[in-house]
Automatic annotation (TrEMBL):
PANTHER family assigned to the protein according to its UniProt record, in alphabetical order: BLR6218 PROTEIN, OXIDOREDUCTASE WITH IRON-SULFUR SUBUNIT
InterPro entries: 2Fe-2S-bd, 2Fe-2S-bd_dom_sf, 2Fe-2S_ferredoxin-like_sf, 2Fe-2S_ferredoxin-type, 2Fe2S_fd_BS, Beta-grasp_dom_sf, Diverse_Oxidoreductases
UniProt entry keywords in alphabetical sequence: 2Fe-2S, Iron, Iron-sulfur, Metal-binding, Oxidoreductase
Name recorded for this polypeptide: 2Fe-2S iron-sulfur cluster binding domain-containing protein
Organism expressing this protein natively: Pseudooceanicola pacificus
Annotated PROSITE patterns: 2FE2S_FER_1, 2FE2S_FER_2
Length: 151
């Protein structure tokens, strides 16, 4: 059994230590907001926070996540129905088209804003390495600026 803290809740998971965190989140814990994209750590659809850092969960073995604070898109807001400024900016600026990559994008953006509360375009470009097939990158940048109050 592996002990995980996901969105502030303790879970005991019976899975092999080398199982990618992505699959444990989705299959064992039902956190399906974390998406499978490429499985190679390139696209970022599976981005979650591990001790506050944005990571590609398809590349994190379960054993490496034990004892860490894991946050998924489901745990980003306060849980009482209120969205974060970032999530509201995403909606207001109609960032998603197909939406598949967006939970990973939002998690990467949230980590950026935590580390750099007033990011420049260069900061955003450096941090936002997630791939969006629809190409909504300009709207992603605008939503991050709006959430940071730098639009």
């Amino acid at each position: 059994m592996v002990e995980l803290n996901v969105n502030g809740i303790a879970h005991s998971v019976d899975a092999a230590p080398e199982t990618p965190l992505l699959w444990v989140l989705r299959e064992n814990l039902g956190k399906t907001g974390t998406k499978f994209g490429c499985g190679a750590g390139v696209c970022g659809a599976c981005t979650v926070h591990l001790d506050g850092e944005a990571v590609r969960s398809c590349q994190v073995p379960l054993a490496d996540a034990e004892g860490a604070e894991i946050k998924t898109i489901e745990g980003l807001s306060s849980g009482n129905g209120d969205l974060t400024k970032l999530q509201q900016s995403w909606i207001d600026l109609q960032v998603p088209q197909c939406g598949y990559c967006q939970s990973g994008m939002i998690m990467a953006a949230a980590a950026l804003l935590k580390a750099t509360p007033k990011p420049t375009d260069d900061d955003i470009d450096a941090a936002m390495t997630n791939i969006c097939r629809c190409g909504t990158y300009s709207r992603v940048r605008a939503a991050i600026h709006r959430a940071a109050g730098t639009e």
